[in-house]
Amino acid sequence: RAAGSDTSITMDPYLFQIGVTGLPNSDLSALERDIDDEIQRLHHEPVPVSELQRAVRQLEAQFVYSSEGVTNQAYWLGQWEIVDDWRRAESLPDEIRAVTAEDIQRVTQRYLQPEQRTVGLLEPMTVEAGGAPIPAREDQPLAHPKIWGLDGPRSPRGRATDTFRRDILQNGIPVLGQDRPESRSFALRVRIPAGVVWESGSESGIAFLTARALLRGFAGRTFEEISDRTDQLGSSITIDAGREFGEARVRGLREDFPELVGLLAQAVRQPDFPLQEVEKLRAEQQGAIAEADNDTRATADRIMRRGLYPDPNPFGRRVLGESASVATLSRDAVRRYHSRVFGPTGTTMAIVGGLSGFDRAVSVLSDAFGSWDGNARASAPENGLARNTAAVQAMEEIPGKSQADIAIGIATVPRGHPDYYALDLANLILGRLGLMGRLGAEVRDRQGLAYYAFSQLEPRRRGGLWSARAGVDPGDVERALAAIDAELTRLREDRVADTELEDGKSYLVGVLPLALETHDGVASTLLAIEEFGLGLDYLERYPDVIAQVSSDDIRDAAHKHLNPRLMSVGIARPSHS
Question: ω into residue 312 within 30 of 0, thus cis?
Fold first, then answer.
């Protein structure tokens, strides 16, 4: 695979697809030859037993994961009823185990034929100064678990929230979790304060690069060895960086929990940062930056955030960084950043699923992470470091586009503020409820000014962000901005209707169980509970908290905390050339 490219292979009941992004034009012919060669191998060579066993293990694991939550189960059953018969959902594991190397050879010979292939290419365009666009060139038994939600499983165990547990490792890391004995899988999330806010201005993008490089080699294991082992286990480990945190996610079968925790601990604590892998990731990151710079929606968001949080506030920087700064990032710089930032201080863990007991899970985590030490760090910069003091608007033009995108942002209250729940309801009514709330109804549906229009609220401990976004025809940018402003003004000045208020409350309370269907959803919720100090009884209290919000509370919160005089507007539109 060429540096900077990304490859995926997917299959649904009707389509086998290989996708490659970021590939230089000069490598296209070689790519097609490689794919043809591998398909011919499948035609003429039996798949090795070890490879077949690994594939069966992965499919078994996917079957277990697909059984998490009633939504997944409903989709799974419905999918099979469409394709064949819903009872196949129960018989599939035995069918998978019965597949032989000869079966694989037979079906590839029948279905993976050159004459049945369709190839689609999207070739990026660039514009030379004063010129026209030209092509860019390269310089155990399986069973569905019981249903869980706010009211817990269908068993005498009681409510799900009764089983939330919290413990602390010897080095101060809090561990939250929930044991789901009926399940054969688990999800683990580890959140480390290692995001963009810890970067210096000159090393923009290093948090993202470091997080991605952790899994490319650690404790003497190569990237290929690591990938091969997680494939054999039918598991996944990912590590990414955001604005405040780096976050690791592990998914696997419960019998593999100790091994997977050990692998994650080695990745976080003992990364090797192989030079070749770091360079490859850096090239991929620069490719992603170029792709974002050619996307109107991503560009509008970047402009809005920089206007809202001007330098030196790190919240104004994008997670990917800038091409110029990423080009200077070296393996040594990544090592220094890891040594400076990564440690147990501020780290939080959440583990959910078939744990064979929460205490046992904590013991496994303690063995792997309990001896992790590091110096206590000073507080990271926050968005109070610098903020716009007046309304700002900026625009960028991108060649070859047909749509304009708008991003509007206002810095607002922290998650722990007394007005937060009223503001959350205000935002729901404005830009999320139903088909994107009032913005969708007015700006998109009635006036026909936008392909999409919505708003959202990003909670933080020390100051959040409210934002609205819309995709519009380039000629309708000003009209769309005026329509969004009118809806925001109406929210700030008028009480919401009783029907809107009740619909909003019902939605916020009713949607919460959906986040608790999957192990990873519960783990994410537990991390938020810890981050914002909400308490393990938060889910029990939440319906009452929402019920107490009045229409006056919503109007007052919007009036106080969504001030248009502090609005940042980013616009990305097609160039006029």
Answer: yes
What are the helix (H) ranges across 163-250? Answer: 206-213, 223-233
Query: How far is 513 from 498, CA to CA, in rounded Å?
Result: 24
What is the sign, positive or negative, of the torsion defined by CA atoms of 126, 119, 15, 226?
Answer: negative
Enter the tokens of residue 236.
């996944």
pLDDT digits (tens, 9 = 90+) for 400-445: 899 999 999 999 999 999 999 999 999 999 999 988 899 999 998 8
Residue 163 is given by DSSP the state G
Q: Measuring CA to CA, which residue among 185, 210, 182, 215 is closest to residue 198? A: 210
Q: Hey, what amino acid is at 377?
A: R
Chain centroid to CA 425: how far?
23
d(CA 419, CA 415): 9
Q: Please, which residues have CB within 8 angstroms of residue 385's CB and are 6 or more apart in sequence?
A: 312, 313, 314
What distance in Å separates the CA atoms of residue 406 and residue 400, rounded to the nearest whole number? 17
Are residues 348 and 530 in contact, defined by beta-carbon separation less than 8 angstroms?
A: yes
Q: At residue 148, does pLDDT exceed 60?
A: no
The residue type of 459 is P
Cα–Cα distance between 474 and 159 in angstroms, integer?
Answer: 52
Q: What are the C-alpha distances in Å from 351 to residues 254, 365, 523?
A: 11, 10, 6
Contact 251, 220 (CB under 8 A): no
Q: What is the pTM of this model?
A: 0.84
Query: How far apart (Å, rounded) are the C-alpha atoms in residues 449 and 455?
Result: 16
Q: Write the DSSP assignment of 329-388 as a string of letters.
A: --HHHHHHHHHHH-SSTT-EEEEEE--S-HHHHHHHHHHHHTT---PPPPPPP-TTSS--
Three-state secondary structure call for residue 415 = coil
Question: Does residue 557 contact residue 381 with C-beta atoms inside 8 Å?
Answer: no
Within 13 Å, how many C-alpha atoms sit on residue 566's CB side?
A: 18
Instruction: Report the DSSP beta bridge partners of residue 457.
Output: 466
